């Protein structure tokens, strides 16, 4: 006999950045400005943009792995990259350049956020179908709450919002345990294989991976966990309701294909 919970209303946890609202494109825009500055400053030393980008990414990811999603990591990675190449080439670093890079890096958090196409329609449909919606996002509370307020997401999530500096398997497990969720009918939806999909699969949840054309290197990991329930890749947010409906109606068990 099929599990009754499969056919009841589902519990759906959404990631925020690059799932419901844009995020990476703002970092990419600032990174382009940074690369322009660096290749100009180091033009005489033949420092190329690819090497600058690689070093900056390594600095950024290393700090995220140590202390989680902290806003200072990004501007610090720009400064550390400048220092790195200055040390290699002997070019002197000025306080003005360091200050410029700090302001440039922090400017990404001041950008007015934009919703992903179909965000409102997707949330409206899931809510109207009776599913319980939660928001589970990584980052600093002040920054993430500003995005939530700008998008008026409390309309859909109420107080069912969780902001964590570290989005890990343990962090997701603590939420599942605290809420006493039925894992068979609980879904994690996000763009990060590392912080959304992998923790969900390890914790026995259903997972929907919103695959992006370009993705932050930190979010990409090899998946070695066998799904215990539904596991599907989509490329558009508006596909979420149909995936869940198909799962409920027994039209196959979707699996991930990368």
Summarize the structure.
With 258 residues, the protein is of the alpha/beta class. It has 2 domains: 4-23 and 114-249, HAD superfamily/HAD-like (Rossmann fold); 25-110, DNA polymerase, domain 1, CATH 1.10.150.
Structure explained in plain terms:
With 258 residues, the protein is an alpha/beta fold. It folds into two domains: 4-23 and 114-249, HAD superfamily/HAD-like (Rossmann fold), CATH 3.40.50.1000; 25-110, DNA polymerase, domain 1, CATH 1.10.150. It has helices at 24-41, 49-67, 73-89, 95-106, 119-128, 141-150, 154-157, 169-179, 193-202, 240-249; strands spanning 11-14, 132-138, 161-164, 186-190, 206-210, 231-234. A six-stranded parallel beta sheet has the order 3-2-1-4-5-6, sandwiched between helices. Helix 9 (193-202) links the parallel strand 4 and strand 5. Helix 2 (49-67) crosses helix 3 and helix 3 (73-89) runs antiparallel to helix 4. The model is unreliable at 254-258 (pLDDT under 50).
How is the secondary structure organized here?
Blueprint: E1 11-14, H1 24-41, H2 49-67, H3 73-89, H4 95-106, H5 119-128, E2 132-138, H6 141-150, H7 154-157, E3 161-164, H8 169-179, E4 186-190, H9 193-202, E5 206-210, E6 231-234, H10 240-249
Helix pairs in contact: 2-3, 3-4, 8-9
Q: Top keywords for this entry?
A:
258 residues; alpha/beta; Rossmann fold; DNA polymerase, domain 1; 6-stranded parallel beta sheet; elongated
Unreliable stretches (pLDDT < 50, length at least 5) are 254-258
Mean pLDDT score: 90
Q: Within the CATH hierarchy, at the fold level, what is the topology of the largest domain?
A: Rossmann fold
Task: Please give the largest β-sheet.
Answer: 6 strands, parallel
CATH architecture of the largest domain: 3-Layer(aba) Sandwich
CATH homologous superfamily grouping of the largest domain: HAD superfamily/HAD-like
Number of strands: 6
Radius of gyration: 20 Å
Structural class: alpha/beta
Task: Work out the helicity level.
Answer: 40-55%
Distance between the termini: 32 Å
Number of helices: 10
Shape: elongated
Strand content: 5-15%
- Order of secondary-structure elements: EHHHHHEHHEHEHEEH
Q: Strands of the biggest beta sheet: in what spatial order? A: 3-2-1-4-5-6
């Amino acid at each position: 006999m099929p599990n009754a919970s499969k056919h009841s209303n589902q519990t759906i946890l959404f990631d925020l950045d690059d799932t419901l609202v844009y995020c990476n494109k703002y970092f990419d825009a600032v990174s382009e400005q940074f690369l322009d500055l660096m290749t100009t400053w180091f033009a005489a030393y033949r420092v190329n943009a690819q090497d600058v980008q690689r070093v900056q990414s390594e600095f950024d990811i290393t700090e995220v792995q140590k202390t989680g999603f902290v806003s200072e990591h990004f501007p610090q990675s720009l400064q550390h990259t400048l220092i790195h190449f200055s040390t290699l080439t002997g070019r002197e670093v000025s306080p003005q350049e360091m200050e410029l890079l700090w302001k440039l890096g922090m400017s990404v958090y001041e950008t007015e956020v934009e919703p992903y196409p179909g965000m409102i329609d997707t949330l409206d449909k899931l809510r109207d179908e009776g599913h319980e919606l939660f928001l589970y996002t990584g980052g600093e509370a002040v920054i993430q709450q500003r995005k939530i307020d700008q998008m008026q997401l409390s309309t859909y999530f109420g107080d069912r919002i969780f902001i964590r500096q570290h989005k890990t398997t343990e962090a997701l497990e603590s939420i599942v345990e605290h809420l006493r969720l039925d894992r068979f009918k609980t879904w994690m939806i996000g763009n990060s294989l590392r912080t959304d999909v992998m923790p969900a699969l390890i914790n026995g949840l259903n997972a929907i991976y919103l695959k992006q054309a370009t993705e932050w290197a930190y979010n990409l990991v090899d998946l070695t966990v066998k799904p215990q329930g539904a596991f599907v890749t989509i490329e558009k947010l508006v596909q979420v309701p149909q995936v869940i409906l198909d799962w409920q109606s027994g039209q196959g068990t979707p699996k991930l294909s990368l």
